[in-house]
């Protein structure tokens, strides 16, 4: 169970309590076709990202650097890649049901007030309304859920980057709803604002603590209904 500011974690969908054939359609396997506890039971870290090619390269690089075997692509569908190196999973989607896992989202982003090439370690995510929330529409109703990131993991990653002399900053990550207007880009097909508007917005979010922008960072909190 989570403690402090984090809400408790547990199974929320009671319909799953009686399910015997749990098939993960996006990965193309289930508990009837794979011994999931045997294959994934020792997992401690899950590294995710948007590009299957990039995640494969990460897995192979990690395998080489740490001198541990890298599995074949364990995903049986063409939707996602899924590699395992020791206790680390590399996948271009994040999904888990173990509270002990530490999930690390990897990806490219646009820096806000940081030098090019800087690694930004998020301390939390902010949506396009500049709120630290994940917004979802369910049955025609707007549902807002607070977002949480692991402060301990954040500090560990910062310390590791500094030890390895990797340029690093920490701050909020803004999660835009699209690649162009949501990020105030000037090179999209639609653009109804000017460069001054863009710079004013970037200054505003920088003052709020934002250090980078991407499109996947807001995460649902686990909540009590």
From TrEMBL:
<dbReference type="Pfam" id="PF01048">
    <property type="entry name" value="PNP_UDP_1"/>
</dbReference>
<protein>
    <submittedName>
        <fullName>Putative uridine phosphorylase</fullName>
    </submittedName>
</protein>
<dbReference type="GO" id="GO:0004850">
    <property type="term" value="F:uridine phosphorylase activity"/>
</dbReference>
<feature type="domain" description="Nucleoside phosphorylase">
    <location>
        <begin position="44"/>
        <end position="217"/>
    </location>
</feature>
<dbReference type="InterPro" id="IPR000845">
    <property type="entry name" value="Nucleoside_phosphorylase_d"/>
</dbReference>
<dbReference type="InterPro" id="IPR035994">
    <property type="entry name" value="Nucleoside_phosphorylase_sf"/>
</dbReference>
<dbReference type="GO" id="GO:0005829">
    <property type="term" value="C:cytosol"/>
</dbReference>
<dbReference type="GO" id="GO:0006218">
    <property type="term" value="P:uridine catabolic process"/>
</dbReference>
